[in-house]
């Protein structure tokens, strides 16, 4: 009987020991699963963050590309328009000629009509004249090629435009060549 009792006790101890081991193993698996779940949650958060950043980067790239394309299209005709500037200068030089004969006046009148048509076409393409009349000298828009002294006018006032300057959609194509007032 004693041996049976001892054996029973031994079996019970072993059973408890096994139950404890199973419980520890189950607890360990739960902890591992919990850790694994936390790791996965962190990974999901990290991937969502990367996705949002990549989406924002793509949107910014599309926006930048669109702006660059618009700028390229806007200024694609810049060289073409610049090739007209010497022609406009020639017209303006012709208008300064003293027109003493009626034939010359008619000729210049036709010239003015052609000049007006060309200028209107170029303005539709975005060409703008740089204003100089009653303006102060601004090195961003004007190039001073000579100075004069007039006490009745303020310092750095533009006295005369020697060659017109032009902008294309706000960008300087050629600065105005001007005579600037200086005080002695």
Structure description:
This protein is an alpha+beta fold and 184 residues long. Helix 3 runs antiparallel to helix 4 (102-124). The longest helix has 73 residues, at 2-74. The protein has a three-stranded antiparallel β-sheet with strand order 1-4-5. The protein folds into two domains: 1-74; 78-181, Head domain of nucleotide exchange factor GrpE (Nucleotide Exchange Factor Grpe, Chain A, domain 2). It is built from four helices and six strands. The chain has helices spanning 2-74, 78-82, 85-95, 102-124; strands at residues 127-129, 142-148, 158-163, 166-168, 171-174, 176-181.
> If strands are numbered along the chain, what order do they take across the biggest sheet?
1-4-5
Which class of secondary structure composition applies to the elements?
alpha+beta
Number of domains: 2
User: What would CATH call the homologous superfamily of the largest domain?
Assistant: Head domain of nucleotide exchange factor GrpE
Spans of 5+ residues with little confidence (pLDDT < 50)?
none
């Amino acid at each position: 009987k004693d041996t049976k009792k001892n054996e029973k006790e031994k079996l019970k101890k072993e059973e408890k020991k096994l139950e404890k081991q199973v419980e520890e193993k189950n607890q360990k698996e739960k902890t591992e699963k919990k850790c694994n779940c936390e790791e996965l949650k962190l990974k999901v958060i990290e991937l969502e963050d990367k996705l949002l950043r990549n989406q924002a980067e793509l949107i910014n790239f599309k926006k930048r590309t669109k702006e660059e394309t618009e700028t390229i299209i806007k200024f694609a005709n810049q060289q073409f328009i610049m090739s007209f500037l010497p022609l406009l200068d020639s017209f303006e030089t012709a208008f300064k000629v003293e027109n003493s004969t009626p034939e010359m006046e008619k000729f210049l009148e036709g010239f003015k009509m052609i000049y007006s048509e060309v200028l209107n076409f170029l303005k539709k393409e975005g060409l703008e004249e740089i204003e100089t009349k009653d303006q102060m000298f601004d090195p961003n828009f004007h190039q001073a090629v000579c100075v004069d002294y007039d006490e009745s006018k303020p310092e750095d006032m533009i006295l005369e435009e020697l060659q017109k300057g032009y902008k294309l959609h706000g960008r300087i194509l050629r600065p105005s060549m001007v005579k600037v007032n200086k005080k002695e």
